[in-house]
From TrEMBL:
<keyword id="KW-0812">Transmembrane</keyword>
<feature type="compositionally biased region" description="Gly residues">
    <location>
        <begin position="273"/>
        <end position="299"/>
    </location>
</feature>
<dbReference type="InterPro" id="IPR045584">
    <property type="entry name" value="Pilin-like"/>
</dbReference>
<feature type="compositionally biased region" description="Low complexity">
    <location>
        <begin position="246"/>
        <end position="260"/>
    </location>
</feature>
<feature type="compositionally biased region" description="Low complexity">
    <location>
        <begin position="300"/>
        <end position="314"/>
    </location>
</feature>
<dbReference type="InterPro" id="IPR010055">
    <property type="entry name" value="T2SS_protein-GspJ"/>
</dbReference>
<dbReference type="Pfam" id="PF11612">
    <property type="entry name" value="T2SSJ"/>
</dbReference>
<comment type="similarity">
    <text>Belongs to the GSP J family.</text>
</comment>
<protein>
    <recommendedName>
        <fullName>Type II secretion system protein J</fullName>
    </recommendedName>
</protein>
<feature type="transmembrane region" description="Helical">
    <location>
        <begin position="21"/>
        <end position="47"/>
    </location>
</feature>
<dbReference type="GO" id="GO:0015628">
    <property type="term" value="P:protein secretion by the type II secretion system"/>
</dbReference>
<dbReference type="InterPro" id="IPR012902">
    <property type="entry name" value="N_methyl_site"/>
</dbReference>
<dbReference type="GO" id="GO:0015627">
    <property type="term" value="C:type II protein secretion system complex"/>
</dbReference>
<keyword id="KW-0472">Membrane</keyword>
<keyword id="KW-1133">Transmembrane helix</keyword>
<feature type="region of interest" description="Disordered">
    <location>
        <begin position="241"/>
        <end position="314"/>
    </location>
</feature>
<dbReference type="Pfam" id="PF07963">
    <property type="entry name" value="N_methyl"/>
</dbReference>
Length: 314
């Protein structure tokens, strides 16, 4: 083999090697871009899924927190409800009226009452702990298909305790708000209450209140249900400062009668006639609900305690 021929072969090999190292073909470039795009898409999908999961968990946590806080507020303030027989001798000087009025409606009930639940935010404010409170539902002005649970408070009790005051939203986008009241006179649960009418529960308060709050927007579009049962501690209307001898005697007799009625209800409950569980809540009615849940009661008084609250998904 001659030297020129060997050199020629070496030059061809070197030239081929240089052509191979010169760059990528169009097909190779497209394949590389496709691989990079696929990897980028997978990374973005992973991060986006984590962000959506985190937002969803945060929204669920907010809904449960809102429901628990709203139920706790309603229960705490219902426990402080009171009635008063303090009236001037001349009815022309009457400037305030205490009530407990509850209306049964769908999808949300309403209750207005006077309570020892006001908190003074200013030390020199001319206010007391007595206040007018109402709980009811209103349509959202921006979304008419959205129902919100609101709280109304007027820090001064007047002759129209069902009106006036400041309204604030307690819970957004509710499905229903139901209240039921245990009557110690009859030993039954009722959907409405009116302490201002002789034909209703005149000058009386319910022994217990069953509260049910249902929110929309649960996991998978399900409903979130919260319910609790709380006692009302002050069963006998206030009447020790009555200046009228006739009304004073009536107040004392009424107080004794109310105390006896409460004791009778408690004795019946302790014998098992009204005890046991939350009962069935079909069609918004309570069947066989116990009168001893949500707070213990002893003797002629009642220890309010802290309401038992639980949240469930429907």
């Amino acid at each position: 083999m001659s030297t020129p021929r060997v050199l020629s072969r070496r030059r061809r090999r070197a030239s081929a090697a240089r052509r191979g190292e010169a760059g990528l073909t169009l097909v190779e470039v497209l394949i590389s871009i496709s691989i990079l795009a696929l990897i980028g898409t997978l990374i973005y999908g992973a991060f986006d899924g984590m962000n959506r999961t985190r937002r969803g968990i945060g929204q669920m946590s907010d809904r449960y927190h809102q429901g628990r806080q709203a139920l706790s507020r309603v229960a705490r303030e219902l426990q402080t409800a009171f009635l008063s027989r303090h009236m001037p001798l001349d009815q022309n000087y009457l400037v305030r009226k205490t009530i407990f009025i509850a209306e049964d409606s769908s999808p949300a009930d309403r209750v207005d009452f006077t309570a020892f639940a006001h908190r003074r935010l200013m030390s020199d404010a001319h206010e007391s702990d007595q206040t007018e409170i109402g709980f009811f539902a209103v349509r959202d002005p921006e979304q008419r298909n959205k129902l919100d649970l609101v709280r109304r408070e007027s820090k001064f009790i007047d002759l129209e305790p069902e009106r006036g005051g400041v309204v604030n939203v307690l819970a957004e986008d509710i499905d229903s708000f139901s209240l039921q009241y245990f009557d110690p006179m009859t030993g039954e649960w009722t959907d409405s209450w009116d302490s201002s009418q002789v034909t209703g529960q005149y000058d009386r308060l319910p022994l217990q209140v069953w509260i049910t709050l249902v929110l929309r927007g649960g996991p998978g579009g399900q409903l979130i249900k919260f319910e609790t049962k709380v006692p009302i501690a002050m069963q006998v209307p206030l009447g020790w400062a009555d200046q009228n001898p006739n009304t004073s005697s009536q107040s004392q007799n009424g107080g004794v009668q109310s105390g006896n009625d409460v004791n009778s209800a408690l004795n019946s409950a302790s014998q098992g006639g009204l005890s046991g569980g939350m009962g069935n809540t079909g069609n918004g009615r309570v069947q066989g609900g116990g009168a001893t849940r949500g707070g213990g009661m002893t003797g002629t008084g009642m220890s309010a305690g802290s309401p038992s609250t639980r949240g469930t998904r429907q």
